[in-house]
């Protein structure tokens, strides 16, 4: 299936947004992809809250209607004082907005296409609109659509209120170079409590396009001191990552590796026969899949496969799972995708693997954060999305961390690095929880673990730096 993307131009989107306050538009339905039928429209658009329809015609008009009420096929006339019709065209400097006549119903909530009285879209399950005389909206057809009722495209967007900035952040962050250095030092000095371990192993799991590979590249860039692109990243309908990859991260161009290994996987997809297989994820958890194993969407890895590791140690296993979720798509996570996340969480819980959630693309999700990344914990919208993820995936809010990947930048940014380092610090803390739950068969091993904890505490409180210099 083709990728579902908006047909709005930058100028058209700007004019459409001018009708509202601080909002974000989420594309729910696109007729050329989902079908020019009322049934297809209602399957994706019912009970979505405030929405705006966007119709395109060959005459260059963009027109439609906004309602703050749900489509629910109630067969009732719905009153909505906030509803309006609109029209946008290149020839018109300002968009046309037509309010609903006071006391009149805004739309008819039927099983047909959107029915605003004056305009009925997807009329007769066709790529067309019907123009009617109406007591609800007084508008001339020529002004609305230039008498061209044949639709070249028809879309519906959910209108989400982004809110404003909170009076105080919901997490207190020190946005200073000292904080960046402190986080970096903590990460570099990390050492697992088990004597046979020298690193923590973290698995990145997420839907196609969530930003898993970009996250690794961003973390790698932050430690290298320059932009890197070691992991394949980009935009595509299917996962760009087709292999299981394990990545080490070096400090500087020729420095040593940090004590954390990031593992990247094929992206999750809605369909059961597409994307990463749940059985393969369990094999990864247990350490059975080797680096560069080529995933198959048709069947999970078999024990006699070349990429299967039969004999595993604690070093091969996954010690923490980080779910990577695109903040812009939190509200659009389908029941099938949520079911996949739930299935993975269940398997991880059974193996005692701690998990956290990384919200990527926070700057794309909220303009206030794009203006200043330090607004990330003051943004009402980002807080709402974090709470929604917490509830949808069944994890505490403290397990949800917003991050920003490097995507178009050519230089590193201190605030971006702070968010990335905070995420790494939590990964290491959670990996420690995994190690602490491991039962040591050798009593001598337990003694050495306690000695290591004592030594590690001394290292962390000492002002001296280790072999890595943090700048």
How is this structure best described in words?
The chain is α+β, with helices and mostly antiparallel strands and 471 residues long. The protein has 2 domains: 152 residues, no CATH class; 279 residues, 3-Layer(aba) Sandwich (Rossmann fold), CATH 3.40.50.300. The chain is built from 13 helices and 17 strands. The strands form 4 sheets. A 7-stranded mixed beta sheet has the order 14-12-13-11-15-16-17, sandwiched between helices. A 6-stranded antiparallel beta sheet has the order 1-10-2-3-5-6, sandwiched between helices.
Quickly count the domains. Answer: 2
Gyration radius, to the nearest Å? 26 Å
Helix content: 25-40%
Given as residue ranges, the uncertain stretches (5+ residues, pLDDT < 50) are 234-239, 440-445, 463-469
Number of helices: 13
Mean pLDDT: 87
Number of strands: 17
Summary?
The protein has 471 residues and is an alpha+beta fold. It has two domains: 10-161, no CATH class; 177-455, Rossmann fold (3-Layer(aba) Sandwich). It is built from 13 helices and 17 strands.
List keywords for this structure.
elongated, seven-stranded mixed sheet, six-stranded antiparallel sheet, 471 residues, Rossmann fold, 2 domains, 17 strands, 13 helices, alpha+beta
């Amino acid at each position: 299936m083709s990728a579902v993307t908006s047909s709005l131009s930058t100028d058209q989107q700007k004019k459409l947004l001018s009708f509202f306050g601080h909002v974000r538009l989420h594309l729910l339905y696109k007729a050329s992809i989902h079908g020019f039928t009322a049934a297809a429209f209602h399957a994706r658009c019912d009970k979505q809250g405030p929405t705006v329809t966007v119709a395109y015609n060959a005459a260059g008009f963009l027109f439609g209607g906004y309602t703050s009420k749900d489509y629910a096929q109630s067969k009732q006339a719905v009153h909505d004082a906030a509803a309006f019709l609109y029209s946008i065209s290149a020839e018109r400097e300002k968009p046309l907005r037509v309010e609903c006549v006071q006391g009149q119903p805004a739309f008819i909530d039927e099983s047909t296409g959107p029915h605003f009285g004056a305009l009925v879209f997807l009329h007769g399950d066709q790529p067309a609109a019907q123009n009617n005389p109406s007591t609800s909206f007084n508008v001339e057809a020529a002004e609305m659509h230039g008498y061209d009722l044949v639709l070249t495209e028809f879309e519906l967007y959910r209108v989400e209120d982004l809110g404003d900035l909170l009076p105080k952040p919901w997490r207190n962050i020190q946005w200073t170079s000292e904080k960046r250095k402190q986080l970096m030092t903590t990460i570099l000095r990390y050492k697992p409590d088990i004597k046979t371990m020298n690193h923590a192993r973290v698995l990145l799991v997420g839907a196609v396009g969530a930003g898993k590979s970009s996250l690794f590249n961003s973390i790698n860039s932050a430690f290298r001191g320059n932009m890197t692109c070691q992991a394949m990243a980009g935009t595509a309908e299917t996962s760009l990552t087709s292999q299981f990859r394990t990545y080490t991260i070096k400090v500087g161009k020729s420095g040593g590796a940090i004590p954390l290994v990031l593992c990247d996987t094929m992206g999750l997809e809605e369909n059961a026969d597409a994307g990463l297989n749940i059985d393969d994820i369990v094999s990864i958890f247990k350490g059975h899949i080797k680096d560069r194993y080529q995933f198959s969407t048709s069947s999970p890895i078999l024990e006699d496969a070349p990429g299967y590791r039969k004999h595993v140690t604690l070093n091969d296993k996954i010690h923490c799972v980080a779910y990577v979720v695109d903040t812009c798509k939190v509200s659009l996570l389908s029941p099938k995708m949520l079911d996949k996340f739930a299935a993975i969480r269940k398997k991880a819980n059974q193996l005692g693997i701690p998990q956290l959630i990384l919200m990527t693309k926070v700057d794309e999700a909220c303009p206030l954060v794009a203006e200043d990344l330090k607004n990330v914990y003051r943004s009402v919208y980002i807080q709402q999305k974090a709470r929604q993820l917490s509830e949808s995936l069944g994890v505490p809010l403290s397990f949800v961390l917003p991050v920003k990947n490097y995507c178009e930048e050519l230089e590193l940014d201190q605030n971006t690095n702070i968010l990335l380092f905070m995420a790494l610090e939590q990964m290491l803390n959670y990996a420690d929880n995994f190690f602490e739950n491991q039962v040591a068969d050798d009593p001598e091993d337990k003694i050495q673990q306690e000695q290591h904890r004592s030594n590690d505490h001394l290292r962390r409180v000492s002002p001296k730096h280790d072999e890595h210099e943090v700048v």
